[in-house]
Amino acid sequence: DVVMTQTPVSLSVSLGGQVSISCRSSQSLVHNNGNTYLSWYLQKPGQSPQLLIYKVSNRFSGISDRFSGSGSGTDFTLKISRVEPDDLGVYYCGQGTQYPPTFGGGTKLELK
Amino acid sequence: EVQLVESGEGLVQPGSSMKLSCVASGFTFSNYGMNWIRQAPKKGLEWIALIYYDSSSKYYADSVKGRFTISRDNSKNTLYLEMNSLRSEDTAMYYCAKSKTGTLFDYWGQGVMVTVSS
Questions:
Q1: Do B47 and A103 touch (CB under 8 A)?
Q2: H-helix or E-strand containing A39?
Q3: Nearest chain B residue (CA) to A100
Q4: To the nearest whole angstrom, how far is the Cα of A81 from the nearest Cα of chain B?
Q5: A49/B105 touch (CB, cutoff 8 Å), yes or no
Q6: What is the pLDDT of residues A23-59, one digit of tens each?
Q7: Pick from A54, A100, A106: which is nearest to B47 by CB?
Q8: Is pLDDT at A8 greater than 90 in this prediction?
Q9: Distance between the two ends of chain B, CA-based, in angstroms?
Q10: Contact check, Cβ <8 Å, B104/A37
Q11: pLDDT band at B37, cuts 50/70/90?
Q12: Which residues are CB-contacts of B45 (< 8 A; sequence separation ≥ 6)?
């Protein structure tokens, strides 16, 4: 299985600040069809996860442009700018290039 | 508005069986693959099963293969997860999730808690 490793495990940020979360995969996430199926999800406290970013850098419907994804191969980054209270929670990266789909361990974003 | 509503939550003994349901609305259910994903208490996410839009293919995580069965009824807009030979390590919140494409999960239900304990 593809192992997804996220760093850091937790992150403290001031409102209005900027943060980056790293996600590294144990194998390249480039599919045979040329696409890279790396996604980012946010699980707010007491809620189910929601899709933020798919195929590395595509924002899902309704997601603010304060969220941006980048990376290639095995190294990926989620950046959140101008952090707002509603951004707090646990962020997960996930891969869908190889079966079974797997997720990183999560990064908890908290207020400083 | 896409809605996925799971049901079937409960406490069961090890070795027993349980069936979860997920009723979908707000999209054409019969056009999309559907998944079950679980989250053990205070843990991360684990994908456990996918069923194609027409039930032609089903995939399972090794941890549940041979014990869990995913199915769907497109006439009822409903996804199911039949769980047999339950173990304590199956204790988790179970989410149904819609596939945007393949294993990209664009909408998730609110989840149901399954507790396996004697």
A1: yes
A2: strand A38-43
A3: B61
A4: 23
A5: yes
A6: 999 999 999 999 999 999 999 999 999 999 999 999 9
A7: A100
A8: yes
A9: 40
A10: yes
A11: very high
A12: A41, A49, A92, A94, A103, B37, B38, B39
Find tokens 């962020």 and name the residue: A91
> Would you give the DSSP letter of residue A34?
S
* Secondary structure (DSSP) of A14-59: -TT--EEEEEEESS--B-TTS-B-EEEEEE-TTS--EEEEETTTEE
Cβ-contact A60, A51 below 8 angstroms? yes
Provide φ and ψ at B31, rounded to 5°. -100, -5
Angular region, B49: left φ>0, alpha ψ -120 to 50, beta rest: beta
Cβ atoms of A80 and A70 within 8 Å: the answer is no
- Best of A32, A38, A48 to disrupt the B interface (most B CBs within 10 Å) is A48
In one letter, which amino acid is B49?
A
* Confidence band of B116 (pLDDT split at 50, 70, 90): very high
Whether B33 and chain A come into contact, CB under 8 Å, resolves to no
pLDDT in tens, A68-95: 999 999 999 999 999 999 999 999 999 9
